[in-house]
Amino acid sequence: AAAVAMAEQVVADLREKCETPVSLLHDVAAAMAHEMAAGLEKEGASKVKMLLSYVDKLPTGGEEGFFYGLDLGGTNFRVLRVQLGGNEKHVINRESREVTIPPNLMSGSSSELFGFIAAELAKFVADEEKCTNSLNGKKRELGFTFSFPVKQRSVASGTLVKWTKAFSIDDAVGEDVVAELQKAMEKQGLDMHVAALINDAVGTLAGARYYDKDVVAGVIFGTGTNASYVEKADAIPKWEGELPSSGDMVINMEWGNFYSSRLPVTEYDQDLDNESLNPGEQASFCVKDNIYEKLTSGMYLGEIVRRVLLKMSLQASIFGDIDHTKLKTHFLLRTPHISAMHHDETPDLKIVAEKLENNLAITGTSLEARKLVVEICDIVARRAARLAAAGLAGILKKLGRDCNAQKQGSVIAIDGGLFEHYTKFRECLESTLGELVGEEAAKSVVVKHADDGSGIGAALIAASQSQYK
Ligand code: ADP
Ligand code: MG
């Protein structure tokens, strides 16, 4: 009983430190809107980088013809081809192929990686075009979704700032990834033009906008998090070039690095942040700061819960006399595990028991202990979802769409495994956004799951940017 009481104290402390009352969320949203404006004002003026994507024409739905897309961002890459039939028909056909990247290529040389990609792409093109001749004398157009930090100076170029996730190919850093890809395609004898370089957030925006002109933002809650939205070109003081004829510019926010003193950060998050700077960890654990991302994305939620469980076990022996080797292992408890535990509806929390046993070697747990575990998952996931909603409210605020009834609807397209699969996260995010914008404005604000933006979005942007329209 003493153990339970002490464990309850750990959970009560956590609950208090993770509280996100509406007043706090309003402050976070206001801070996000403020940082957005600062980031647009001057390069380096905000932790939120607000990068120009150079995408000034989003797909309208009227595009026609065959276009290719390439999606590189994780351990797989995908190639795809779409046939667009214009306003009535939209996507007539879509074929895609997923290819696993051999691990040795992820840390080899730039020419090996892009050579492999170009070779797979060439095979795909040859297979697809056997059935339909899609060219009609036009050059093939490709959109490239590359979800790593790049510095762009035009829509179809960008130098790699650094690798993240499992990639580390030194000689590619500082190089133009489009030029590398283009060069590799030429070597393959593949006649194709890279029309656009984008990331998954911009792809999600484009993919959803193609069907619905009310879409104003594309957001990812997956392994990491990021957001993009459509800004008026004349609201970007730091832009020195010629203003686009469309008057619009898609901004790649890179909002994972957002910071506000109002963010409810606990000792567990702080420890995670400090330790993530240790050398020897996987590259993606080294993203300095990125505190907003750590509080709201799939890579970290399981890890935060693990840290709370460890403290609860060491301080209160809530799991009895167990071996802590696994519970002490960083990133062993993953977000899909906490999602499964959080959604456990069995009366004796059988799934919680199973996950603790299989993943952390914690056996023979009491029902009381399991209930506390579920509550910890709830606290961590709910904080994530509410802060995520505050970020979205910040975008709406920046656009002046956050209060009162709007004549025009505002649709936010969201993709990513966390949003897609973690039901309680998604539901909490949606209801919190409603709370934040208020009943009237909520009628015109819609959150929508946009599937596969990073694949098809690239092809659609290639179509809208296409020089052969
Ligand atoms: P990426 O962001 O790497 O492109 P995804 O969008 O598919 O990939 O997101 C994958 C992430 O989604 C995983 O790292 C994990 O954190 C989260 N995720 C996947 N499945 C689930 C699940 N069932 N429950 C909760 N989170 C999940
Ligand atoms: Mg993805």
Q: How would you describe this structure to a colleague?
A:
This protein has about 475 residues and is an alpha/beta fold. It has two domains: about 1-50 and about 210-450, Hexokinase, domain 1 (3-Layer(aba) Sandwich); about 55-200, ATPase, nucleotide binding domain (Nucleotidyltransferase, domain 5), CATH 3.30.420.40. Helices cover about 45% and strands about 20% of the residues. It has helices at about 1-15, 20-40, 85-90, 110-130, 175-185, 200-210, 265-275, 290-295, 300-315, 335-340, 350-360, 365-400, 415-420, 425-440, 455-465; strands spanning about 50, 65-70, 75-85, 90-100, 140-145, 150-155, 155-160, 190-200, 215-220, 225-230, 250, 410-415, 445-450. The chain has a six-stranded mixed sheet with strand order 1-11-10-9-12-13. The structure holds adenosine-5'-diphosphate and magnesium ion. Adenosine-5'-diphosphate (ADP) binds near residues 74, 335, 416 and 418. Adenosine-5'-diphosphate (ADP) binds near residues 74, 222 and 422.
